[in-house]
Amino acid sequence: MPDSPATRLQQLFEGHRLTPTQRRIAHCMVRRAADVPFLSSVELADLAGVSQPSVTRFAVALGFDGYPALRKHLREVAPAGARTPAELNEYQQAVEAEIENLRHLASVLADPSPVERAGAVLAGSRPLPVLGLRAAASQAYGFAYFAAKVHPDVRLLDEGGTMLADRLDAAVRAGATALMCFALPRHPREVVDALAYAKSLGLTVVTVADSAFAPVAKSSDLLLPAAVGTGLAFDTVCAPMLLGRVLLEAMCDGIPEAQARLEAFDARAAERGLFVE
Questions:
Q1: φ/ψ of residue 40, rounded to 5
Q2: Taking the CA atoms of the chain, what radius of gyration do you get in angstroms?
Q3: Checking DSSP bridges between strand 178-183 and strand 128-131, what pairing results, if any?
Q4: Beta strands in the chain, from DSSP E residues, in sequence order
Q5: Confidence of residue 80 (pLDDT cuts 50, 70, 90)
Q6: Per DSSP, what are the bridge partners of residue 224?
Q7: b vs e for 155-186, b when ≥16 Cβ sit within 10 Å of the residue's Cβ?
Q8: pLDDT confidence band for 18 (50 / 70 / 90)
Q9: How far, in Å, CA of 75 to CA of 77, rounded?
Q10: How would you class 86 by CB atoms within 10 Å of its CB: exposed for 0-12, middle for 13-18, buried for 19 or more?
């Protein structure tokens, strides 16, 4: 598997039983993988929303004498020639962080089996509900828009409230066997509750989330992580969007009629003059 700071962090955390606070710190470190070797314990605590002593206890839980030893280890395994954040302006840092997120996604996809399993599950659900609220609504919309080109019955769930459970009920009554969910920070409580309800209905939950430590993990049967960028005022989500497109590709492989449907759509679009070429 190709190397990256995020990959090394994930490997560092493997095999350790972490408390909820420590998982929050781990989640933050994965999201800021390129910056972590240059952050103080106070800066990391602020980013993760925890106390500075919690960061120290976290480092000890990983087997280090303290946070300085953990940071020293991360600096020693940083790729040669890596630039510190101070050498880049804030916009460049945001782009570099997204590039690193995409590199990490590429390394994860070196094993395509999780995505292939998810694609088969989604392809077999008729109808296919697609959930995404608040920050994740645009990801759900984009996935549902393209999925509808090849899947006969896609149902977008991009609004919360009391109707959400009703729409899940209706999808199950119509024959749905799976739910596609996009879950991004900040994680709405409604999404966590909706996934738990979907599981109680017997749906197989496939989730694209920002981290394997996300709050939706416990209610997901197949969780596919794709980190978000946090360097700007609003998170950037290139990796989750790309992972959604990869899932669509895998889903098409599970729908024998997919190519014929795409060709039929192109023919109709040409007859209607739908696009300006």
A1: -80, 170
A2: 20
A3: parallel
A4: 128-131, 154-157, 178-183, 204-209, 222-225
A5: very low
A6: 208
A7: bbbbebeeebeebbeebbeeebbbbbbbbbbe
A8: confident
A9: 5
A10: exposed
Residue that is written with structure tokens 């899932």 in the block: 247
In whole angstroms, give the CA distance from residue 173 to residue 40: 53
Q: Give the containing element (helix H, strand E) for 197.
A: helix 189-200
Give the C-alpha separation, 165 to 25, whole Å. Answer: 32
In this prediction, residue 81 has a pLDDT band, given cuts at 50, 70 and 90, of very low
Find how far residue 205's CA is from the centre of its chain.
Answer: 14
185-234: pLDDT as tens digits? 889 999 999 999 999 999 999 999 988 888 899 999 999 999 888 777 78
User: What phi and psi values does residue 229 have, to the nearest 5 degrees?
Assistant: -90, 140
Crossing angle of helices 238-253/90-108, nearest 10°? 30
Q: What is the mean pLDDT of residues 75-102?
A: 71
3 state DSSP class of 117: helix
